[in-house]
Amino acid sequence: LKNSSLLDDVLERLFNSIFYFMLFLFLSSLLELHPWTLLVSIASLLVSVSFAFGSSVSSYVDGVLFMVRSPYDLGE
What we know:
The chain is an all-alpha fold. 84% of the residues lie in helices and 0% in strands. It contains 2 helices and no strands. The longest helix has 35 residues, at 35-69. It is flat and about 70 Å long.
């Protein structure tokens, strides 16, 4: 019962954020603010940053997970 209420809360937040984002796009289009140019530029910037830092972040996360799992006992 607790997991289902948690899942309901997460889905409600997800659908609310999608709805408000679409509402923002619609209202800004009505006001002729042209949100698509801003969204395309931000998306292209995020894609380029993800390609630039993707491998180094992956190596960092692998190192942290290796330390957390600690596959070796003390003294090996």
